[in-house]
Amino acid sequence: MDTATTIAGRSVPWNKGKLLDQKPPLRLKEIWAIRIRLQLDHRARELALFNLEIDSKLRGCELVGLRVHDVIQGSQVSARAIVMQKKTQRPVQFEITEQTQEAVAAWVQEAHRQPEQFLFPITAAHQADADLPRLGGVLTHGSGSALQCTQALEEIRMPRPMRLCVARGIQTW
Structure pTM? Predict the structure, then answer.
């Protein structure tokens, strides 16, 4: 039996006696390992998305709803941004670190994004990511180390900055 064990004719749930709780937030070492892996794989979109998530602590629906003009003023990525939260209708101000500024600038330049366009659109190339079972970001095991992002992050109630990294077992260190 896959999910239960039979003891004296009764089925015992797979999680009996186990502590089920939220996973702890990513450690600094793990965050840097993910950043390095994304840089080595030349995945500008995912790197910018990951770094912006760490800096802003926005929910996924707000993060993918950002437009280019929200974070870029003129030709430079601004050091601060203000976004109106959809759920609370309150403005949220956050600082954008230099590393995130570089990643976002590289992504905008690579994708040729215009100021009125979404910063992180779901395109045909990323459509397979949207078909995932509504998990914000999953670090896949065995089939590579791809960081996949979807627009369904708001359904996941996890501590920040774990929303983009549901699975912690990345094989990078």
Answer: 0.62
